[in-house]
């Protein structure tokens, strides 16, 4: 028998486990955790450390054995809680279809960028066209122009005409402005030439006016308009001055009325009353008296009765009373 094969070689010894070098941030964190805390933790620092951490993966949980949110519209079917919006009724099915979307049917379009749709030829027309093509001597029949072609051509013509008219108007306005500028320049040059002739010869030179009669009438009309505008401006200025004076007078009157009103309000707030000149008082009055005069007379009689402690009798209006001296009536006690 042949000798047995030699045993397979043994596996090499495993390499020594080498730790990866720690980074500076990891080393600082380890040192911080190993050392003993010497101060109270600060919530702001802790929240900053938490916020700096890595974002966790999103975890989904479809467990409905114990729902967190409980409401009356939940029902339990086959060990699962189902909400009212998840029930298989027509309304919820429609909402789910709207949310998920429905795949549309694929459509094909064989559009070859045709300018317009033409009418299809009948069999007789196709036969006639083939016969005409067979006969090379005869020219092919011209196709009837479509109405849409006429409309398109007309639209293009109108558009081009509109653009040309706009360009022509702009050119005309530019020419008019240039002509006005040149006319003004010619007038200035003529004036300078006249001044030069006057300075050389010392005699006035008749000016050769190149301005037409239309321009002269235009100048005269402009002068008349300027004079009328100046007169109107002077009238408006005069009216403005009169109005300003009236406004100043009204303002002064308003200020005077405000001052009087403030003085009266101050007297009313302080409870002051106007002094009564008793020496000129009389119960007799030839004119008809109003209610205010009657009230004033009754007030005076009451004051007089309080001071003398003898109420006055009901004296007739026609009765005349003697004037009371000012020294016998203590006004300061009742003001």
UniProtKB/TrEMBL annotation:
InterPro entries: WH2_dom. This is WH2 domain-containing protein. Residues 90-107 form the WH2 domain. Residues 1-27, 125-149 are annotated as: Disordered. GO terms for molecular function: actin binding. Pfam families: WH2. It comes from the Eukaryota. It comes from Lutzomyia longipalpis. Residues 140-149 have a biased composition (Acidic residues). Residues 1-16 have a biased composition (Pro residues).
């Amino acid at each position: 028998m042949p000798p047995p094969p030699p045993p397979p070689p043994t596996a090499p010894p495993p390499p020594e486990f080498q730790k990866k070098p720690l980074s500076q941030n990891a080393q600082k964190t380890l040192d911080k955790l190993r050392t003993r805390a010497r101060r109270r933790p600060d919530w702001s620092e802790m929240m900053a450390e938490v916020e700096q951490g890595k974002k966790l993966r999103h975890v989904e949980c479809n467990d409905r054995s114990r729902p967190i949110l409980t409401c009356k519209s939940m029902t339990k079917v086959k060990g699962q809680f189902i909400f009212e919006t998840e029930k298989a009724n027509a309304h919820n099915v429609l909402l789910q279809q709207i949310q998920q979307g429905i795949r549309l049917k694929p459509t094909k379009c064989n559009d070859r960028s045709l300018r317009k749709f033409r009418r299809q030829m009948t069999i007789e027309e196709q036969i006639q066209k083939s016969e005409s093509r067979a006969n090379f001597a005869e020219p092919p029949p011209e196709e009837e122009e479509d109405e849409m072609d006429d409309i398109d051509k007309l639209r293009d013509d109108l558009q081009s005409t509109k653009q040309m008219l706009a360009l022509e108007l702009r050119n005309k306005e530019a020419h008019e402005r240039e002509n006005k500028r040149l006319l003004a320049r010619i007038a200035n040059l003529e004036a300078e030439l006249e001044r030069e002739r006057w300075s050389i010869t010392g005699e006035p030179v008749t000016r050769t006016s190149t301005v037409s009669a239309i321009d002269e009438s235009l100048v005269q009309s402009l002068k008349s308009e300027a004079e009328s505008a100046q007169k109107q401006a002077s009238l408006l200025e005069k009216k403005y001055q009169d109005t300003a004076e009236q406004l100043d007078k009204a303002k002064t009157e308003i200020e005077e009325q405000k001052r009087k009103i403030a003085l009266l309000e101050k007297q009313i707030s302080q409870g002051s009353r106007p002094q009564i000149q008793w020496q000129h008082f009389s119960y007799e009055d030839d004119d008809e008296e109003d209610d205010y005069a009657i009230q004033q007379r009754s007030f005076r009689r009451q004051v007089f009765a309080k001071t003398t402690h003898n109420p006055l009798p009901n004296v007739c209006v026609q009765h005349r009373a003697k004037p009371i001296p000012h020294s016998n009536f203590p006004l300061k006690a009742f003001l």
